[in-house]
Amino acid sequence: MSNAQLYWQANLRLVIGCLIVWFVVSFGFGIFLVDQLNAYSLGGYKLGFWFAQQGSIYTFVFLIFFYAIRMNVLDRKFGVHED
After folding, report:
1. Residue 78 main-chain phi, psi, to 5 deg
2. For residue 55, what are the contacts with CB-CB under 8 A and spacing of at least 6?
3. What's the rounded Cα separation, in Å, for the pair 66 and 70?
């Protein structure tokens, strides 16, 4: 398998992993598991409500930085980084 194909596979794994985390947090915690999470509170708010309103946004911002850092690592590993 060529270096370009390996790089693309690593990139796709990273993107799919980030999308899974985003889906679990935004849909799983904010919609599907909201009733179970509302038994707990965070900062005075029910946890399910917090994930639906704030948690998914914080997670998305975290994933942006995580993706950028991991892509820099992959770029250097496969020799396609920018100087």
Report:
1. -100, 5
2. 25, 29, 30
3. 6
